[in-house]
Design a protein that fits this description.
heterotrimer, A alpha/beta (255), B mainly alpha (287), C mainly alpha (296), B: 287 residues, mainly alpha, C: 11 helices, disordered C terminus
């Protein structure tokens, strides 16, 4: 069982400090929350973890593996998957095709075989198709398999994105505002999915605005403001921390 | 009847050769690389094959292999700097590359015959051979489409960030797409050399760029059928009516404007999408 | 003699500047690489030729050429690009569409000119040569340089000092916001395309006079050259285009004068390639303009 560990992580854009000295630990099997007001730097953190943004200082480890400077496509192989704030599904592909791509990490056929359409590559495609369909079933999306992915409702698109991320069989999942724009019914359905991930032994880093949701799901919460951690602890502790309250609501007294 | 067919064979030959070039252009665009360099790779392959036959007297098979390899090699070399550029800049770089190749070709008179071109290439390739190669190229593209590479290319093209987050190496895949493109262009350039007695440097300039691009734009950039249809229409249509042939460039021009504005996916792809959508609708009603 | 070549180079740079400014202006506001720009340049030359051929004075031909090229440029914008901006496909689609427009314009010009090389009647522009300090400069060269300088200054004034210039910058920055402030973006764009076309047309007339050879294909080499110029100067940067025109104008003139022929093109395009390799945003372009987003 390993841990995703951010140590003294910093990011500077020229003179602007986007993140500074961020220390976060995501153990396997736990759901860890990362909250903070808009612009606090939450997505910056995820982008650094996934290699889309260069790290200015500090380190990121998955277990013993140092992924601080690993290129983006190798992060997946280190066992990390992420979802995007604005649901990036492939607009020209069907739902099934979108999930099939998630299995890329597991495809082992030789490049030449894939190019020439040799039977080994063909079998792999069939196998991936089946696994994708199984995945869709898990998320109750099997009826939509052949529909263009962007034609689905928002809630369903979210599920497709999750299915795609799960296809890579990650050990850690980074969720970037997964329930934004959903009503309680939809978000409760997703909550179940997240619980299943944790029970399966995956570490989940949940970035969310919805404080109630975070309080319900997470065993430990980190609070970011202006790029720095201003509080951390159990949900109860964090939500009654005056530093957190003033970060979210300003210094007004809130009845 | 025989005369009728024989009259159209040269046309079919042109179609087969240009089909290969269309596929070369197709595969790079598929992987999200905005490269227009197919004409240059074709020229490199053609002249290599031609020189192998004329100056070295080697068997056409060797010449073809050489052409394919040089085309592929040039593409791989080009892909390295191009990987760091995006969109428009990639396009400009590839156009610059075509110009460089063109002017080097004319300058290196001793090797290539310069502006006079390379002449007296023995014609060793006939329609049958062309057909075999064209069929192989079609199969190759189709196999790539259906498999792992096609899916990876597709993903990279539509959303690089997603591709990377799923473990797809963008540089490796784009370099591969380039290599395939260069190999195809080099091969079919070589076939052109062994099919037409002579080569002229201007054959492989802006004009070829436009025609190759047109096949893919008109036919479709998203399925194997696209280049097949696009090349067929653009090569055969002018033969159906004299006025069309005479005004070929105007028609190409208008076609490019109209298609990219109103039918951006190309004829074949739009049709395929429509069929698929109808099938979904009917399937939904049925179940 | 070196100074002579430098002078020649200056004049050449002036013409390149006129051509490239419009090219880079359009890219700067819409991220569209208008490959029909060469054909528009050629149209300017042709219009001036036919005006003069029909007996009217050169200055009238010059003015009509500028207006015609400007209008043609606007026409191209409306027919070829407007719809693409709505669907968001301008970068790729714009190139394709403009190639198409160029083909159409050139074919029409080919038909009209009967695929002949057109030459101005003798003495259309008075042939007067000034000799001083061992140098030879023709009146035409003075005129070309002068015209280029005047037009560039006018452009600079228009873009940087007037309300129109502010509107261009507003629309380029944020089209929706500009609309909310009462600016009509389409009108601004059309004006910009007109200016771009007019400058190119002017360049066309000057080149037509200088080489006294007008063909339907004359714009293409200039288009290729303009690629190199606007990349060196930075896509979308007006001062950059000016600077780069100077550099490339000089380089071309000097290499033609001192190096074996045929090497010029190779040098120019290899330079372009190298620039793209090491500094795609050119001298004055924005950092990261040419590089892929989200990469290290």
């Amino acid at each position: 069982m390993s841990t995703l560990k951010l140590t003294n992580l910093s990011k500077r854009f020229g003179g602007v400090v986007a993140s500074e000295d961020v220390n976060i630990e995501v153990p396997a099997g736990k759901i860890i929350g990362l909250i903070g007001p808009n612009g606090a730097g939450k997505t910056t953190i995820i982008n650094m973890i996934t290699g889309m943004l260069a790290v200015s200082g500090g380190e990121i480890h998955v277990g013993d593996i140092d992924i601080t400077h690993a290129p983006a496509h190798e992060i997946c192989r280190a066992g990390l998957a992420r979802t995007f704030q604005n649901i990036r599904l492939l607009g020209e592909a069907t739902v099934l095709e979108n999930v099939m791509i998630g299995f890329h990490r597991h495809e082992t056929s030789a490049t030449l075989a894939a190019m020439l359409g040799l039977p080994s590559a063909g079998r792999e495609t069939v196998e991936i198709k089946e696994r994708a369909q199984v995945m869709l079933k898990e998320f109750d999306l099997q009826d939509f398999a052949d529909y263009p992915a962007t034609g689905l409702s928002y809630g369903h698109q979210r599920k497709v994105e999750m299915a795609r991320a799960m296809a890579a069989e990650p050990n850690f999942v980074l969720l970037d505002e997964p329930i934004a724009g959903m009503n309680n019914v939809e978000s409760d359905a997703l909550a179940e999915v997240f619980q299943r991930l944790a029970s399966a032994g995956k570490g989940v880093l949940l970035i969310e605005h919805n404080v109630r949701f975070v309080a319900k799901m997470c065993s430990y919460v980190y609070v970011l403001d202006g790029g720095r951690l201003i509080s951390q602890g159990t949900p109860d502790h964090v939500l009654s921390d005056p530093a957190v309250i003033s970060a979210y609501l300003g210094d007004q007294q809130y009845a | 009847m025989n005369n009728f067919i024989a009259g159209y064979l040269p046309l079919f030959d042109i179609y087969l050769i240009h089909l290969g070039l269309a596929f070369s252009q197709y595969i790079v665009l598929r992987a999200g690389v905005f490269s227009l360099a197919t004409a240059a790779f074709a020229g490199i392959g053609a002249y290599t094959a031609g020189i192998f036959a004329v100056s070295l007297g080697l068997h056409p098979a060797i010449g073809l292999l050489a052409g394919t390899l040089t085309g592929m090699g040039a593409a791989i070399v080009l892909s390295i700097p191009l990987a760091r550029l995006q969109g428009v800049y990639q396009a400009i770089a590839t156009v610059a590359f075509i110009q460089i190749c063109l002017s080097l070709n004319i300058y290196a008179e001793g090797l290539t015959g310069g502006a006079m071109g390379l002449n007296n290439i023995p014609k060793t390739i006939g329609t049958g051979t062309l057909f075999v190669f064209a069929a192989l190229a079609t199969y190759l593209i189709w196999a790539i489409e259906r498999g792992r590479l096609g899916r990876a290319f597709n993903t990279i093209r539509q959303d690089e960030a997603v591709a990377a987050s799923l473990g797809i190496s963008i540089t490796r895949h784009q370099m591969l797409a380039f290599a395939i493109s260069g190999a195809l262009a080099g091969l079919f350039g070589g076939l052109e050399a062994y099919h037409s007695y002579a080569l002229d440097p201007n054959q492989f300039g802006f004009h070829l760029l436009i025609t190759t691009l047109s096949y893919v734009i008109l036919g479709g950039r998203n399925s194997v059928v696209g280049p097949l249809v696009g090349a067929a229409i653009l090569i055969i249509l002018p033969e159906l009516a004299r006025p069309l042939a005479e005004n070929r460039m105007v028609i190409y021009g208008i076609m490019l404007i109209v298609v990219i504005n109103y039918l951006p996916k190309g004829i074949a792809d739009t049709a395929i999408d429509a069929v698929r959508a109808r099938r979904l609708k009917n399937g939904g009603d049925g179940s | 003699m070196l100074v002579q070549q430098l002078l020649n180079g200056l004049v050449v740079s002036g013409v390149y500047a006129l051509f490239s400014l419009g090219f880079t202006l359009v890219f700067g506001i819409q991220r569209i690489l208008n490959l029909a720009h060469g054909a528009i340049f050629m149209t300017g030359a042709m219009v001036s030729y036919y005006v003069v051929k029909s007996g009217m004075p050169l200055w009238l031909g010059f003015i009509l050429a500028i207006i015609a090229s400007g209008l043609l440029s606007v026409l191209v914008e409306i027919i070829c690009f407007r719809r693409l901006r709505k669907t968001g496909d301008e970068e790729f689609g714009g190139i394709i569409s403009s190639i198409g427009a160029g083909l159409v314009i050139m074919t029409i010009a080919q038909q009209v000119s009967g695929t002949q090389v057109l030459r101005f009647p003798f003495e259309t522009f008075p042939v007067v040569i000034f000799k001083f300090w061992g140098l030879r400069v023709s009146m035409l060269q003075f005129f070309m340089a002068g015209a280029a300088i005047v037009m560039v200054l006018l452009l600079g004034y228009y873009v940087y000092k007037t309300a129109f210039g502010r509107r261009i910058r507003a629309v380029t920055d944020n089209e929706a916001a500009a609309m909310l402030m009462g600016i009509n973006p389409n009108f601004v764009y059309s004006q910009t395309y007109f200016i771009a076309g007019a400058l190119a047309g002017a360049a066309g007339v000057l080149v037509g006079l200088a080489f006294n050879s007008i063909t339907f294909l004359m714009g293409e080499p200039y288009l290729m050259f303009a690629f190199a110029i606007i990349i060196l100067g930075g896509l979308g940067s007006i001062p950059g285009a000016l600077l780069a025109s100077l550099v490339f104008g000089m380089v071309q003139t000097l290499t033609i004068a001192y190096l074996p022929s045929g090497l010029t093109d190779t040098i120019i395009f290899s330079s372009l390639f190298l620039i793209l390799l090491f500094r795609p945003h050119g001298i004055l372009g924005k950092e990261d303009a040419g590089l892929l987003r989200g990469r290290r």
